[in-house]
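Continuing the batch. This is chain 6 of the set; chains 1 through 5 are on the previous pages. Same settings as before, nothing changed between runs. Recording input and output for traceability.
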Amino acid sequence: MELLNDMALFVEVCKVMSFRQAAENLDMPSSTLSRRISHLEKAIGLRLLHRTTRKVELTEAGQIYFERCKRIVGEAKLAHEQLGEMLSKPSGTLRVSLPVDFGTIFLTSLLVEFSELYSGINFEIDLTPKLADLVAQNIDVAIRMGNPPDSNLIAHKLMQFRGQLFASPKYLEQHSIPEHPNDLVHHECLSFANNTHWKLYRSGEMVEVKIGARFMLNNVGMTRKLAILGQGILFTPYEVVQDDLKDGVLVPILSEWQGDVLPVYALTETRLLPAKVRVFIDFLQERLINSKP
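Output for chain 6:
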């Protein structure tokens, strides 16, 4: 890459046959430009330019090198321009793996918006809670909640959540309203089977509560529905239930308490991303990174 850059500088000098003028055109010091050309000559092992106080002339080797470099540098610039066009109008099939709940709650409308911006991209979406094998399954990007796995995958942070407590007015009418997290031991709580200890934080204070529940399940959508039907207290990010709060079918409880930070990442096999993957991740970060934690 450094050699190609020096070749491009050499071509600019040859176009005007002046270090001063070329340096002005390139917006760089003449001394730096002269040093880079000297470095190029040293790397090649031949003098390319005769320098005098009045003028610059090509040597025989310099003339041959200039003719070759013009084509190489021109091709490189054209390649960059074409790649820029690809980035502005990426196309192809984008293969995405993501959890069911996150996909249905957060990404459905964003996918529609993204597809309208990039009409050349098609989608293959695998909804699964398990981390896909990106290479074996030919997955471009996997979106997962929680800290990224200890692997060679590259993690691109999209957003983060903090769980809060909600219940239906019907449930709270039938049960006492909890005034402290410790009161949750006397309530029905809706949770995943692997999450029976809820940690809640307030201004540096942490309380861990072992909750009891009649309903243990692994689907956020169904858990939310059960909460609306008055079956217990829900511990979930605000974004999951914001429409329910507006409709009044759920209300917040213990509002000053929140759960651990839960990050969301887009995982890729490499940092060298195809245009379709790069614009997708950039789009999600722009829409999600500043979401309410």
